[in-house]
Amino acid sequence: MLETILAxxxxxxxxxxxxxxxxxxxxxxxxxxxxxxxxxxxxxVISLADIAMYTDEEEVPLADVLxxxxxxxxxxxxxxxxxxxSKEQLFDYFAEILPNFDRDRVYPTDVKxxxxxxxxxxxxxxxxxxxxxxxxxDNIDDRKEEE
Length: 147
Description:
The protein is of the alpha+beta class. It is built from three helices and seven strands. The chain has two domains: 5-48, Roll (SH3 type barrels); 52-130, Arc Repressor Mutant, subunit A, CATH 1.10.10.1650. 26% of the residues lie in helices and 20% in strands.
């Protein structure tokens, strides 16, 4: 994976891994500000490559879902206004991207977050979602533990 894109629980937006410290990660926001900050071991940090969406059969990697969304939108920003969309509108839109998603385990907030992340990535030119698929040995949680 050329770039590691991260989501940090409790913090809005997406982040790019810049460096690793002894007990933290240095991340940079993926937006116009490109603000750098530390992410500590107490923060819940997850790579987008490690996220999957529930379907009726199996889990589908987020990279595949983002690729489908990109194909639906022809590489442009999402056409759905997630602030005004109802639960039914969100699920109808998401069904066009991932037809067999599990309606019991995927919540409207999950769809909103997916669309927000997609828009952030597209706005910042990060559109090759195949690079987001995990490769052997990629694990951002291989941080040194306190002894």
